[in-house]
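Sequence, please.
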C-alpha cells in the first residue's frame, strides 16, 4: 500500500567557478566580487492525462527562477532573477566571495522579479517565507491555462566561493511545493454516491522545505460535487495541494483500521467527505488521507497519492493507498529493476535480481505510536536479522533515505528464499521488521479461487509447490504476530526436535536454534505486543491458563486480557480491515471467517484427500481437488516450547478469526481434515494468504 518521497531531479543546477586567482595559504578573501555560472535543466516525460490535469511535462516546467546565495552567517550575498529558456539554460549570478560554507537556494515559478523585495535578506528570514494564501484549490497552479506550473524550491551547500571566476560543479534538486492527490470512489452492496467534497486543504506552505513544521494555520474546503441519482462510481478524480503533515493517531485505541483512523485523526487533517445511501441507510464517510489506511495523516510536498475508495456498508469503507514520488525520471539508472513497495505491509516479494524500496513509515503505524519522528533523517538504520541463504539479499539504507525508504536487492543466482530485515534506532533497538520473500512467484497471476476467496497457491514463504519437498512448507507464525519463524529443515521430524531451516546472518554465519537464532522464552506480563516487535526471533511460549489457553500475547489468565483483533478476525461474522500486524504482502491478508463460515468450508476427506492416498505419510500433504491446490503437511511449532510437532503427518493453516480464547485454523491429519479447528494462539502454524478484496 504505501510509498514515500522520491526527490526528483527536475532541475540539475551545475555551479561553475573559474579559478584565476588565489590568496596565501589557500584562504579565500571575503567580500570580493565573484561570478557564479549556473546551468539549469528540466527533465521532461510525456504522459496522457485528462482535461485539466497537468501533464508530467507541465508538472516539471521551470518558467522563471530566483537564485539566492547566503554565506555561513546567513547573510544574503547574491541574488538573481531570470526567466528560464531551456534552449539557453546558462545563468550567471553576481555574488561575493566567502571562505566558509555558502548555501545556494533556487526558488522557481514565482512569476515575479520583485517577489523577494524587502524579504529574504537573511537565510533565517527566507526559511520563514510562505507562498501566498490560496483562495481556491486551483490557485496552487501558477500561470495561465495552457501554460501552468508549480512553485518549486531546492538548495545546495558549497564549501566556499572564491573571488573572480572559478570552477566547481555540484547538483541541486528542485522539489514541487505541491502534492498530487488522485482518487476513485466505488460503491457496492446497493449503495449509491450522492456527493463528495475535500476538507482541510492548507492555504499556504513554506517556500523552503521545513522538515519539522508546516506553515499552514488556515485551511479551505471545496464545495460539494453533486452527482446524478444512482451513481455508483466516481473514477479518476484528482487535485493538487500544499503539504499537510499531521503525523499519527491522537490515540492508540482499537479498531486498528480505517474506522479507527477516522476516530483518532489530528485536528485539520485532510479528508474526503462522501455522502452515500442505500435502501437501509443514509451515510457519511470520511476518508482521511495519508500514506496508509490506518494511522498516517501526512501529505508531503512533491509526493503523489492515489486512493481507491470502496464503500461497502454503513460506516464501512475500504481504501487502497498508493504513495510514491511525484514522478520517476526515466533515465534514473538507480531505479533499474527497483519498485516502490506496493503499499504498506510486513512482507515484500522480490524476484531474484530485482530490488524493492521499503517505506519505514510502517514503524509508526502500530499501537506503539510514533517511533521515527522523521523518516528521511538518520535516526534509523536498516540491517539484516536472518536469511535462509548466504548473501540472499543486500540492504542499502542510504540511497533511498530521502524517500523514507531502504532498498533491498535479491541476488540473481538464487532459486529463492526468505529473510527478515529490521529497522533499528541509533541505540540498536528494533523498531520494526519485515519479511522479504525472495521468489519468482507472482501471486497476482498464479492463484486459485475457491470458497469466495482468491488464494495464493502456496504457503507464505514457500519457494515451490512441488509436493513432498521441504520447499513447500513455507514459514511458521504465531497467531497475531507479523514476523515469521523458520519451518522444518527435514521432511519428517520427530516431535520435540528443533531441526529448523538453515538461517544465517549478514556475514554468512549460521544462527543456531536456541542460540543466536530462534530462541523460546516464556511469555510474561499483561501485554507482550511490544516485546514481540522488539524481538522478532524470540518465540514467546504460553504459560497456559483456563481462560486464555496458551497465548503469547498475555499471561494474565483473564479472557479480557487477550487481543482478538491482531489480524482483524475478532468477529466471525464481519472481519475488520487488514491490520498493521498482518504478515501477508500488500493486497493480501490472512483469511477470515465471514458470516460464521470457515474459509475452508467443504474441506473433507473426499474433497481434500492425501496426495498419495495409499500412504498418508509419503504424500506429505493434501490436495483440494476442486481447485487442484496442494497443502503440505508442514507440521507446526508447539505453544509450550516452540519445538516441532507432527512434521509430515499434520498440516495447519491459521485463519485470522477467533473462537473464545482460541483461534480458528485448518487442520490436516491422518484422520479427517478439520476446517474449523481451535488452537492455542502461541502455536506456530503456516499462513495461506487470500486477496484482500472482500
Amino acid at each position: 500500500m504505501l510509498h514515500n518521497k522520491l526527490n526528483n531531479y527536475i532541475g540539475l543546477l551545475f555551479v561553475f567557478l573559474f579559478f584565476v586567482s588565489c590568496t596565501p595559504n589557500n584562504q579565500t578573501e571575503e567580500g570580493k566580487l565573484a561570478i557564479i555560472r549556473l546551468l539549469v535543466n528540466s527533465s521532461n516525460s510525456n504522459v496522457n492525462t485528462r482535461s485539466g490535469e497537468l501533464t508530467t511535462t507541465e508538472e516539471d516546467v521551470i518558467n522563471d527562477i530566483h537564485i539566492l546565495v547566503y554565506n555561513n552567517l546567513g547573510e544574503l550575498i547574491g541574488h538573481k532573477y531570470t526567466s528560464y529558456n531551456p534552449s539557453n539554460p546558462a545563468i550567471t549570478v553576481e555574488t561575493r566571495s566567502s571562505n566558509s560554507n555558502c548555501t545556494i537556494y533556487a526558488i522557481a515559478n514565482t512569476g515575479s522579479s520583485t517577489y523577494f523585495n524587502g524579504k529574504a535578506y537573511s537565510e533565517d528570514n527566507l526559511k520563514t517565507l510562505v507562498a501566498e494564501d490560496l483562495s481556491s484549490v486551483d490557485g496552487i497552479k501558477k500561470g495561465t491555462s495552457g501554460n501552468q506550473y508549480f512553485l518549486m524550491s531546492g538548495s545546495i551547500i558549497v564549501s566556499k566561493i572564491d573571488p573572480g571566476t572559478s570552477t566547481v560543479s555540484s547538483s541541486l534538486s528542485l522539489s514541487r511545493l505541491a502534492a498530487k492527490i488522485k482518487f476513485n470512489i466505488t460503491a457496492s452492496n446497493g449503495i449509491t454516491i450522492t456527493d463528495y467534497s475535500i476538507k482541510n486543504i492548507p492555504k499556504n506552505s513554506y517556500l523552503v522545505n521545513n522538515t519539522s513544521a508546516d506553515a499552514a494555520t488556515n485551511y479551505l474546503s471545496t464545495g460539494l460535487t453533486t452527482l446524478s441519482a444512482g451513481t455508483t462510481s466516481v473514477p479518476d478524480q484528482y487535485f493538487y495541494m500544499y503539504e499537510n503533515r499531521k503525523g499519527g493517531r491522537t490515540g492508540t485505541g482499537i479498531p486498528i483500521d480505517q474506522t479507527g483512523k477516522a476516530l483518532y485523526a489530528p485536528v485539520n487533517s485532510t479528508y474526503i467527505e462522501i455522502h452515500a445511501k442505500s435502501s437501509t441507510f443514509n451515510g457519511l464517510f470520511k476518508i482521511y488521507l495519508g500514506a496508509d489506511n490506518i494511522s498516517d495523516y501526512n501529505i508531503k510536498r512533491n509526493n503523489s497519492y492515489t486512493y481507491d475508495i470502496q464503500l461497502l456498508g454503513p460506516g464501512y469503507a475500504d481504501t487502497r493507498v498508493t504513495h510514491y514520488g511525484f514522478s520517476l525520471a526515466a533515465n534514473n539508472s538507480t531505479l533499474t529493476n527497483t519498485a516502490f513497495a506496493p503499499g504498506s505491509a510486513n512482507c515484500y516479494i522480490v524476484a531474484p535480481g530485482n530490488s524493492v524500496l521499503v517505506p519505514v513509515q510502517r514503524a509508526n503505524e502500530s499501537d506503539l505510536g510514533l517511533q521515527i519522528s522523521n523518516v528521511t533523517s538518520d535516526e534509523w538504520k536498516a540491517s539484516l536479522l536472518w536469511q535462509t541463504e548466504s548473501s540472499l539479499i543486500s540492504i542499502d539504507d542510504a540511497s533511498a533515505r530521502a524517500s523514507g525508504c531502504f532498498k533491498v536487492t535479491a541476488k540473481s543466482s538464487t532459486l529463492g528464499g526468505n529473510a527478515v530485515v529490521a529497522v533499528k534506532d541509533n541505540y540498536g533497538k528494533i523498531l520494526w521488521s519485515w519479511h522479504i520473500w525472495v521468489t519468482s512467484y507472482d501471486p497476482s497471476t498464479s492463484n486459485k479461487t475457491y470458497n469466495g476467496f482468491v488464494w495464493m497457491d502456496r504457503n507464505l514463504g514457500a519457494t515451490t509447490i512441488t509436493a513432498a519437498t521441504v520447499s513447500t512448507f513455507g514459514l511458521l507464525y504465531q497467531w497475531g504476530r507479523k514476523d515469521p519463524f523458520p519451518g522444518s529443515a527435514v521432511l519428517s521430524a520427530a516431535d520435540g526436535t528443533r531441526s529448523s531451516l538453515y538461517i544465517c546472518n549478514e556475514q554468512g554465519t549460521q544462527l543456531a536454534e536456541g542460540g543466536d537464532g530462534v530462541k523460546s522464552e516464556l511469555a510474561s506480563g499483561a501485554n507482550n505486543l511490544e516485546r514481540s516487535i522488539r524481538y522478532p526471533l524470540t518465540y514467546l511460549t504460553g504459560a497456559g491458563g483456563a481462560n486464555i489457553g496458551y497465548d503469547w500475547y498475555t499471561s494474565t489468565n483473564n479472557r479480557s486480557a487477550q487481543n482478538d483483533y491482531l489480524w482483524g478476525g475478532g468477529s466471525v461474522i464481519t472481519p475488520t480491515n487488514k491490520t498493521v500486524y498482518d504478515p501477508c504482502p500488500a493486497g493480501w491478508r490472512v483469511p477470515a471467517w465471514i458470516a460464521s463460515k470457515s474459509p475452508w468450508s467443504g474441506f473433507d476427506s473426499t474433497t481434500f484427500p492425501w496426495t498419495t492416498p495409499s500412504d498418508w505419510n509419503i504424500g506429505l500433504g493434501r490436495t483440494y481437488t476442486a481447485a487442484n491446490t496442494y497443502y503440505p503437511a508442514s507440521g507446526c511449532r508447539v505453544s509450550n516450547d516452540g519445538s516441532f510437532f507432527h512434521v509430515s503427518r499434520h498440516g495447519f493453516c491459521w485463519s485470522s478469526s477467533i473462537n473464545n480464547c482460541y483461534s480458528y485454523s485448518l487442520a490436516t491429519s491422518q484422520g479427517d481434515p478439520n476446517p474449523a479447528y481451535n488452537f492455542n494462539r502461541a502455536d506456530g502454524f503456516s499462513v495461506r494468504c487470500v486477496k484482500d478484496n472482500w
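The two ends are 16 Å apart (CA to CA).
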